[in-house]
Write a structure and sequence with these properties.
Chain lengths: ~260, ~260
């Protein structure tokens, strides 16, 4: 199983939109996919039409109350399941901090399921706390959604440092799969400049840095209102607007990622 | 002095863009304005071209090491000053938690300056932690930037609940000035639907709720690439592109807010 953490501590850059639609695209390519909602906002769950009531099993119960993933997981569409979240996940960071091996709790619960799925996609919250560290310890790769704006670029260095720390201290396999430009408006000068800056920054990486070898994905996700509309119908883009630019772009991304697997 | 906290725990909705450009617009209207950067990301500081080195006085020193606001504040343009932030502000939440009256530390340091400025605009981080509670305790009003998207709408209820808690427990004067639609694309169905939902939600408020009487501002901020470009030049929109839609919209917002003052 390949597992990707979808992460950027800058808010509103397209993490959830990427996690849900990339997972759905990989399922359309015939892969078995598990989507994990690790954000207390529970937006990935909401995006696919799941709003848990207090009694339902969630990722919180899997991490801290011994519930099996099989118990909490729900089918979203063919070959695509989700382990949903609930706002009570906010309490998880404090409770995880009391545990032995507190960074590896998610890795521990995902381990037994590695042979059941081809991909595990983890949607992270816009922070670098213990939940996110759990995602980085469990994942083999990090996909970094980025908006091609100056303010969004500014935090990238700090994000890559944090990924490096986890790689050196907790998960030596961790590598950066790449940077994905979201809500990309190719025509603006700003987008071209930021994309150029990021390419240059990544190609200058030293061999011991976690982002050595990482690239900007050749697929970019264009701004497309259908991607912003589909969560209000509880659907991913392929069930809502399969002929849209949004569906095209996420399908192309899934193909690019699936192809890269062959060379790992 | 009127003080407004610019707040929404959903990330990337336009808080910093609003804090900086509204502050600049109020200064252009002849008001004396103090902008406070209360986000460890320090994006408001970056937006106006300030990147502190470790030795410089910042909001962190003002809150926790007895530095005077006058010492840390810097002039941005005529009648506009900023108390900048630095990434070390991340540590502030833990240190504030040890203090007596830990929610009112910001209110305490701002108090003596109330007669020097007409407006204080506080840029908050995308979270509801102790720094944000300090902003809500110090401010008289909250301005909520919102993107007219489904996922952004979903957290609004929780945000209003948190504001209510602070109003009942810490700051009885606190009220919601209004909801501001940012990156607004009037032509899309989604924007119209979300705007309608929010109007309806606000007008149904009970008298004891903090958002009773709050409205959606009649000014909306259109998506405008100049607003995303100006931070890379360390400038607010009036110094970068004074004839742009972005400048027009934030100037209109400042007039709408200044006018509302008369009726308070
Ligand atoms: N390519 C796109 N085109 C148009 N809208 C988009 C696109 N990608 C994301 N959006 C919208 O932009 C907003 C932010 O995206 P999203 O919520 O996925 O970001 P996020 O990084 O997960 O945010 P958070 O930091 O709060 O978790 C959402 O309302 C989403 O619907
Ligand atoms: N009206 C607008 N038109 C175009 N771009 C905008 C507009 N408002 C904000 N932006 C851009 O969108 C991105 C998000 O805005 P901003 O950083 O102000 O949001 P924020 O809520 O402060 O984010 P955070 O939650 O990280 O603090 C920034 O890159 C900004 O330049
Ligand atoms: Mg998200
Ligand atoms: Mg901000």
């Amino acid at each position: 199983m390949r597992s990707l953490a979808i992460l950027n501590q800058k808010g509103g850059v397209g993490k959830t939109t990427t996690a849900v639609n990339l997972a759905a695209a990989l399922a359309r390519l015939g892969r078995n996919v598990l989507l994990v909602d690790l954000d207390p906002q529970s937006h990935a769950s909401l995006h696919v039409g799941i709003e848990l009531s207090a009694g339902d099993a969630s990722i919180y119960d899997v991490l801290l109350h011994g519930a099996a993933i099989a118990e909490a997981a729900r089918t979203v569409s063919k070959r695509l399941s989700i382990v949903p979240a609930h706002i009570d996940l906010v309490a998880a960071e404090l409770e995880l901090a009391q545990r032995e091996e507190r960074e590896r709790v998610l890795a521990g619960v995902l381990g037994p399921y590695a042979s059941l799925f081809d991909y595990c996609i983890i949607d992270c919250s816009p922070s670098l706390g213990l939940l996110t560290v759990n995602a980085l310890a469990a994942a083999g790769e990090v996909l970094i959604p980025l908006q091609a704006h100056f303010l969004a670029l500014h935090g990238l260095g700090r994000l890559l440092e944090s990924i490096s720390l986890v790689r050196h201290g907790i998960n030596p396999q961790l590598r950066v799969a790449g940077v994905l430009f979201c809500m990309f408006e190719k025509a603006t000068k700003l987008s071209q400049e930021v994309a150029g800056d990021v390419e240059q920054f990544l190609s200058a990486a030293e061999p011991d840095q976690a982002w050595h070898g990482a690239r900007v994905f050749s697929t970019t996700i264009r701004r497309n209102v259908k991607l912003a509309e589909c969560p209000s119908f509880g659907k991913h883009i392929f069930d809502y607007a399969p002929a849209s630019h949004g569906a095209e772009d996420y399908f192309a991304l899934a193909k690019e990622i699936a192809k890269a697997a062959k060379s790992i």
